[in-house]
Amino acid sequence: MGTVFSFDVRGGDPGAVQSALEEAVAGLHRVDEVFSTYRDDSQISRLARAELTVDDCVPEVAEVLALAAEAERISEGWFSPKYEGRLDPTGIVKGWSVERAARRLADLPGVSGVSVNGGGDVQLLGVPGPQRPWRVGVSDPIRPGGLAAVISAAGLDELAIATSGTAERGAHIVDPSTGRSAVTDLVAVTVVAPSVTWADCWATAAFAMGSRQGLRWLESLPGVEALLITAGDEVRCTGGLAARLG
């Protein structure tokens, strides 16, 4: 998927954890083989060329396309599983694959906590230790090397953080209504939610909307908090974000 994944697993039998980690890494490579739009032989590329039907593909393809369609519906079209009119669900695949890997690791006997980070999209489950919550730093898009915030999962069994913006990859987010790069006042949107599958989608959609519309829309989503940073270094937050800082 063109990015780095990291795993932090607390507890469990070391041998079983090592085996599960190897399976998780192999699973991520399989996801890339199936969903990569850069591979002509991937199932998603062949599906886009109408060489396959969804029923011909592995079950995960139908699962991801259904999630992408739901994200498009909830965002009123601001999240789209297409690029330049062509099927391209990569906007949801990374978050989905991070969450799937984290949940499989968390199911191991004796595991108390799991953190999986895929290119800055993080799924947290359980706790890293007694009386210790997971804490995740959010990079400052204006000041490289600095932190814009620290998010704490204190009191929660599940928390995810995902950021969309231009700091790392430039203007890669598309406005679905124009098919061109989204022109907004934002440089980054960080979404905090229970599921990184959805957090990733909502961050992308809100970035394309711009700070005012994006903030209003994020406020309307249950269980979702967000931090938005504009090109003018203005910080805007949803009402409940303060409870997750620390």
Molecular structure report:
The structure is a single chain. This protein has 246 residues and is α+β, with helices and mostly antiparallel strands. 34% of the residues lie in helices and 26% in strands. The chain has 6 helices and 13 strands. The strands form 4 sheets. A 7-stranded antiparallel β-sheet has the order 1-4-5-8-11-12-13. It has a two-stranded antiparallel sheet with strand order 2-3. A two-stranded antiparallel sheet has the order 6-7. The longest helix is centred in the first third of the chain and has 22 residues. 39% of the residues are buried. The model has no long low-confidence stretch (mean pLDDT 92).
Q: Which tags fit this structure?
A:
single chain, 246 residues, alpha+beta, seven-stranded antiparallel β-sheet, two-stranded antiparallel ribbon, 6 helices, 26% strand
The averaged pLDDT comes out at 92
Q: Which segments are poorly predicted (pLDDT under 50) over 5 or more consecutive residues?
A: none
Could you tell me the number of beta strands?
Answer: 13
Helix and strand sequence: EHHHEEHEEEEEEEEHHEE
